TrEMBL record:
Organism: mine drainage metagenome
Pfam families: Glyco_hydro_114
UniProt-listed Gene3D superfamilies: Aldolase class I
Protein name (Swiss-Prot/TrEMBL): TM1410 hypothetical-related protein domain protein
PANTHER family given in the database record: PELA (PTHR35882)
Record-linked InterPro entries: Aldolase_TIM, GH, GH114_TIM-barrel
Length: 208
């Protein structure tokens, strides 16, 4: 499994991997490479939206919980009833039509930055569960890969193909643009092996 978030994916080299996660805004379109044996996975941000995304202008502003200034993004309210269907049709469907056959779901915990009430936190998690269920129903052949999201697994593990665990040994501070060492006491939290009901992959990377 490979991750490549650059603007011009090296298709020939990346095709040696079984699964390749790329940023679909790189203009890479898998249907243009029908002979590639790799399964191309689209990076999609579930918890945040940025102005550079093609669907941003149509995004209802009432679904915004707050801002993440470090990433110049807006945090999405996962409890909005129409959000799962919108995400599936407006965000994922165009990527499926371009040939992506899997989706790497990132920023699953962004709501934690602005939601502190335990009951509201549970509602955010249930909203994410509905979103994943909706994706599986609309795209049953798609690979669904989570970036962490451990608390969701008891309810969606049968729908998820894998879990990625980033920043196990090193994390990225976007505000200061530096890497930092993850403390030993946080390793179990980062790895979360006892909560993973699906195959897991550990890695260190940051959004670029």
């Amino acid at each position: 499994m490979a991750f490549y978030y650059g603007k011009h994916p090296a298709v020939r080299e990346l095709a040696d991997f079984d699964l390749v996660v790329v940023d679909p805004d790189s203009d890479f379109t898998p249907v243009h490479y029908p002979r590639s044996r790799a399964r191309w996975i689209a990076y999609v941000s579930v918890g945040e939206v940025t102005p550079n995304r093609g669907y941003y202008d149509l995004f209802p502003k009432s679904w915004i919980l707050g801002d993440d200034p470090d990433w110049n993004s807006e945090i999405i309210d996962q409890t909005s009833p129409a959000w799962p269907a919108y995400f599936a049709e407006q965000v994922v469907r165009p990527l499926w039509n371009r040939g992506y056959r899997g989706f790497f779901l990132d920023t699953l915990d962004s709501w934690r930055k602005v939601v502190t009430d335990p009951q509201e936190q549970e509602r955010q998690q249930l909203g994410l569960v509905r979103l994943i269920v909706t994706l599986h129903r609309k795209f049953p052949q798609a690979q669904i890969i989570l970036n962490r999201g451990f608390e969701l697994l008891p309810k969606v593990h049968s729908l998820v193909n894998a879990v990625v665990v980033e920043s196990v040994f090193q994390g990225w501070n976007q505000k200061d643009k530096i890497y930092y060492a993850v403390s030993a006491q946080d390793y179990p939290v980062a790895i979360g092996s006892d909560r993973c009901h699906s195959p897991s992959v550990s890695l260190a990377r940051h959004r670029s």
